[in-house]
Write a structure and sequence with these properties.
alpha/beta, 18 helices
Amino acid sequence: MTARKIVVATAVFFIKNTNMRYRAFGAAYVGIILACLLFSSCGKNLMVPVKYPSLSNLEARHREMLARPYVVLRIPEMDAEVWAKTKGQGSLAGQGSSMIPPLEGWSLGKAIMNQYANAGAGALGFHVAGVKNRDFGFANEMDPSGILEVTVGALGLKTETSRDERYGAVKSTISVEQRRGRADLSGKSQWYTPQGQKLGQETAFSVFLEGAISDDSQLNHWFNKEKNRLWDLFAVKAAQPPSLSAQYGSKIRYRAILPSKMNPKIQEGFDLAKQKNWDKAAGIWKEVAFAQNHPSAYHNLAVYYESQGSYDLALKNYQAAKAAYARVKGDMEYGYLFPYTWDHAIDDLEMLRQNQEITARTAAKPALSAQPQWFSKKTAVLPLTNESNFVDAPLLLRRLIEERLRQQGYSVIDPGVVDEALRTQGATEGAHLAVLSSKKIAELLKADYLVYGQIHEFNEVPLGVYHKREVGLTLELHAAGTGEVLWKARKKILKEEGGAKGKEAFGLAVLQLVKGLAERIGKFPLKEESAQLVSAMLSMIPAR
């Protein structure tokens, strides 16, 4: 009976005839012995130490490279049904209650940006994106030193109640109930090089905020007052540089040169390697690898190249060994090979190569400018095309767009200058822009970016017990010189209220009537929905 069969029989006997308490430990122990025999590392393999270049300053290099990052903040978008149920007050999938406050992507992005304000440099910018589109959007346009991708999880808001037992003046027990609000926010962050290569491991984290409230009805009020503290706590965790020390605590790797009972050539190379005749052994393994597509030959060749510092050749041969092994996986000759061994070696070599590329780029690349050129360029917000029945909608929404862009750091051309220049070409409203090319408009305005917009809905329907308010908009950002569409988005906010009866229905109708009247006096109907829509849409382009 072979050693493998003995170990397998022992494992079966041990597991069947041992108490449940010790079975898991016994199975694990026997598994380790079996793996040892299968991998032939119990005195049969030749273990080769592979010394990598010093990686002690790897994390410091990455810190330097990430001194001026661009932040991509990913927030799951709500579907239309949940949006309708929450009356637009939530902004994360699964938030089925209007009591959940909105997760403010723009505020979170600004909080993360602020973490770099006193770090000797600063983040170049950020934008809010969904989780489905996995590209980095505007990151390449900003020429960053690195990219920080932060994915936001669910925002939880709840009340926690506790009782404090105390003694009164006559030693009677008094039960005092205390209520506290609690807000929880989770997320994960991943760093990338400017070319999109991962740096370190993804980091998951969570933060929370607590505070005293008088009763449950005060929960939302408490959170809205304190939420900026939660955003700041989240930002501190999200902005941490990648930790690589755990991956690279040791500078020496040990790789096994594998013998072969069934292939004399591989065994001959193994014997030569034991005699330190590495070049001749490598020549034999190379012949076998090319002639037979043999995983053991590729593996041994990879270890040889790795020990010689030829990391690119080592990586190619480890990958070839893994591919060849998939073809002969069931053959007992290769039973001692484990793909995870190659995975570890491939990961090491990929990170080493990446670090070398980063070092070369960092040394050769000139220092980044203090301010990204993106924001110094001139941006013109053009008159909006109106498909709604409200005549003043283009003026109102255009004003909000201009204000928001300035808030995000853009140099916006005065709308009076824009309108006067367009009037010379016979364009007095958004619908007339179709006859003018973006290049022609850019020349007229001396603009670098053009913002086009189209209003689809701008309606308020007050019908007593039923009330509907909706604003729908499409926005496009064009590169003025080429006319290229750099970004396009279409969104709609729909808020519906109804189904109430009796006094509740009457109160709702009066409330909506007063709200609508106040908006008309202020000459800005649907102001709340318009501001919310513009804010959500423009958070998806760079801000700082």
